Amino acid sequence: MQRSVRYGGGMVTEPSPRRRTGGRSAAVLTSIRKAVEELIAEQGSDAVTIPMVAERAGVNHSSIYRRWGDARTMINDLATYRLDPDRGLPDTGDLRADLTAWAQELISHYGIPVNAALLRGGAAAAGESESDCLRDRRAEAAEFAARPGSAFSGDDVIDRVVAPIIYRVIFLPWTLSEVDARTYVDELCNRSA
Fold it and tell me: Is the dihedral of CA 88, 92, 95, 96 positive or negative?
């Protein structure tokens, strides 16, 4: 694109300045996420530092500090990002089937080693506080509990469906592939009936 400007009494055509589309910010965030995932997979979440992430991502460490403040907060935030809290929950009208699909989504998601590592890192980063990931799962569980036909609470969903899955992700990751989401959902629904 070109524009005409007055220069020394005449008109000169020069290129217009390029507009930033916001793509750089998205690219930087993507490179940071990728760096964090790689470093956690290679070294574990406790070893990851902001300078390591900045070097791997090719960004200035001050950009990372400005956004997150510390490595633990960054890991917690990125762990939450991996399982998008804004995605739609299954809603076919069959509560048991929807819960089973949701539980299977959790199992599949955390069956990917880097996602499991991010979960562990996010939980460690949260310390005694509730992690963003747990807060999101609680909100989803509460949505299921509020649906017509539900005889259970959001805490029941957490205790009977989410907790056993997360326990395996954290302590027995090699057994996650053996998990059948229907078993947990059936137990929840049968106890609540």
Answer: negative
Q: CB burial class (10 A; 0-12, 13-18, 19+) of residue 170? A: middle
Range(s) of the chain covered by CATH 1.10.10.60: 25-82
> Two tokens at 192?
């609540």
Q: DSSP for 30-73?
A: HHHHHHHHHHHHHH-GGG--HHHHHHHHTS-HHHHHHHHSSHHH
pLDDT of the chain along its 193 residues, tens only? 454 545 455 555 544 444 444 567 878 888 998 898 889 888 888 889 999 999 999 999 999 999 989 988 888 777 766 566 567 899 999 999 999 999 999 998 888 888 888 888 777 777 777 777 788 889 999 999 999 999 999 999 999 999 999 999 888 988 988 999 999 999 999 988 7
What is the CATH architecture of 25-82? Answer: Orthogonal Bundle (1.10)
Residue type, 78: L
What distance separates the 2 farthest-apart alpha carbons in the chain? 86
